[in-house]
Amino acid sequence: MNVLAIDTSNQPMSVAVLKEGILAAELTINMKRNHSIQVMPAVDYVMNQADLKPKDLQLIAIAEGPGSYTGLRIGMSSAKSLAWSLDIPIVALSSLKVLAAQVTDQHKLIAPFFDARRGNVYAGLYERTNTGIETIQFDRNVEMTDWLKTLKEMNRDVIITSSTSHQFTDEIYDTLGKNVRLIDSVLQYPKASMLAYLAMSEEPISVHALAPQYHRMVEAESKWLEKRQKER
Amino acid sequence: MTEHNEIILAIETSCDETAAAVVQGGTELLSNVVATQMDIHQKFGGVVPEVASRHHIEQMTAVLEQAMDEADVTFDDIDAVAVTQGPGLVGALLVGVNAAKAVAYAHDLPLIGVHHIAGHIYANRLQQPFEFPLLSLVVSGGHTELIYMNEHGDYQLIGETRDDAAGEAYDKVAKALELPYPGGPQIDQLAQSGEDTYQFPRSYLEEGSYDFSFSGLKTAVINKLHQKRQKNEPIDRENVAASFQASVIDVLVNKTYQAALEHNVKQLIVAGGVSANQSLRARLQEKFEGSGIELYIPPLYLCTDNAAMIGAAASIQYHQGDFAGLDLNANPGLMME
Ligand SMILES: [Zn+2]
Fold first, then answer.
1. Which of B98, B326, B328 to probe by mutation at the A interface, max A CB count within 10 Å?
2. Which residues in chain B have their CB less than 8 angstroms from residue A224's CB?
3. CATH of domain B7-122+303-320
4. Domains, chain A, ranges and CATH?
5. B64 contacts on A by Cβ (under 8 Å)
6. Distance (Å) from the C-alpha of residue B92 to the closest C-alpha of chain A?
7. pTM of the model
8. By three-state DSSP, how is residue B188 classified?
9. Kindly report the CA angle at A20 between A60 and A27, in degrees rounded to 5?
């Protein structure tokens, strides 16, 4: 299967193409760049390296979030439009799950997170078993202090990984002590090839209905809901 | 297929309408699909950019598909993909720009980045041919501009607002009158049964300038309302609306007329959301009657944001070979060259 995968959830941008199920080309840039300018030229580049034309593609894989709202939409708009106009299936996967899947340790909790500012994180909990990477707790937007408490209560070895810069290192060790390991930096950046591999065994989703997973309501909307509830 | 009846798939997502259209030869509308978010933003009293962006990404491919279906075309029929590059809300623009790039890449089609205002002007060309030189009055929530054109694709800005756009002033005055969003049509409606009793100031700026300024007028209206409320005096909303509108329209119509005469134009083209305003239409018709200058105002569905106008403007760029690369980006502050 020929798969094109795109991840623009956060600062790192990764694009990869699998040719007959095997990695042909991958491009990851971890610089503060503009995803909107970079992503289609990157797609063009990896496709050329793979000697593939757009019509040769059979599946599009997209990291659906959480992450930067704008970054998510840039990738999602590109991916949806590719899948729709080429009339091929699309698979959307959690950006955190992709990060977790890069950790190869089995039977340990894997806790990927992205900094969500003001002490908050987007976090999920995963575990690698004999059959693959499993979701233990769904992605959420949570205060890091609360999230670390949740992890501590599970009383198991946990591996923490994050592709966004953060100031939580001391807090992580203080709360989880010897039960925690922070992942090596070489494994902490999302690789679109991992996204592509995972996508091959997932059910495709209807392209029109697909939207990023923001895990956070727009402030104007939550204020409006609040106001309406008070009026009742 | 000859070079002259190219078919363009166009996308517009600069504000709160997710739109796609198929346009042939720059003049023929094959389809024009607009998914409006009006009622969504109404509860917030204005467009919330993040909300708009979220709706765009949910609507985009469905709107594209509908535009292709209604035009009864396949990608084999399409000669280029066009998209609003700016100005507009950056998060909203990005959805359209990245969709356009992906579709162009997938089908190896040329990509055209279009200026939103060029689109508004070219909406008129879907109705009748242009005759140069022409003058265009662009009035919307974000724009109040007089643009002179000597030929296709040549835009010379001869006047613009120095503060609020006309549509923006409408929205703010509507808010002060506690009218629901969007305020423009509401004020127009109220004004029909009121009179210009307040005589708000008309801002013509310095002699010979074709620039506009509406913030002084807006402040005068808001201050007047404030005074009345403090003194517990009744507010005649119809008259306030009529007085405000009379001031806006006097300036718009008189300046446009002056500019049209000075530049010896053959046509005056009105564009943008505010050109839906009934009083503006009537006053322009009155003023230009017998002037020898042809006045064109597009039908309502072409005044407000749509993708057909982007496809119409893109046709000119198509024939000029003005194409964009895959690194095309949204530009919220895009200037007209
Ligand atoms: Zn507009």
1. B98
2. 43-44
3. 3.30.420.40
4. 3-94+190-223 (3.30.420.40), 96-187 (3.30.420.200)
5. 81, 84-85
6. 9
7. 0.95
8. helix
9. 60
Identify the CA nearest to B328 among candidates B128, B134, B115, B183. B115
Looking at the DSSP bridge assignments, the partners of residue A128 are A133
For the cut 70, the answer to whether the pLDDT of residue B3 exceeds it is no
Instruction: Write out the two tokens for A224.
Output: 């409006």
Which CATH number, 3.10.50.40, 3.30.420.40, 3.90.79.10, 2.30.30.20, labels domain B131-297? 3.30.420.40
Domain limits of chain B?
7-122+303-320, 131-297
Q: Which tens digits make up the pLDDT trace of B61-74?
A: 999 999 999 999 99
Tell me whether residue A113 is exposed, middle or buried, using C-beta atoms within 10 angstroms of its C-beta: 0 to 12, 13 to 18, 19 or more.
Answer: buried
In angstroms, how far apart are the furthest CA atoms of chain B? 71
Q: How far apart are CA A55 and CA B330, in angstroms?
A: 27
Q: Which amino acid belongs to residue B327? A: D
Q: Give the pLDDT band of residue B1 (cuts 50, 70, 90).
A: very low
Around Cβ A4, how many Cβ atoms within 10 Å? 31
Binary contact (B106, A36; C-beta < 8 A): no
Q: ipTM of the assembly? A: 0.96
Percent of chain A with pLDDT over 90: 87
Q: Provide the mean pLDDT of chain A.
A: 95
Indicate if B131-297 has the same CATH topology as B7-122+303-320: yes
Burial grade of B208 (CB within 10 A; 0-12, 13-18, 19 or more): exposed
B116 is in an annotated binding site: yes
The token pair that represents B244 in the structure block: 């405000």
The residue length of chain B stands at 337
B112, B42, B120, B83: which is closest to B301 by C-alpha? B120
Report the residue count for chain A.
232
Judge whether B77 is annotated as a binding position.
no
The pLDDT tens digits of the residues spanning B244-294 come to 999 999 999 999 999 999 999 999 999 998 998 989 999 999 999 999 999
Residues B171-204 have pLDDT tens digits of: 899 999 999 888 889 999 999 999 999 999 999 9
Interface test with A, best of B22, B64, B85, B105 (most A CBs within 10 A): B105
- Separation CA B159–CA A25 (nearest Å): 52
Are B136 and B146 in contact by the 8 Å Cβ rule? The answer is yes
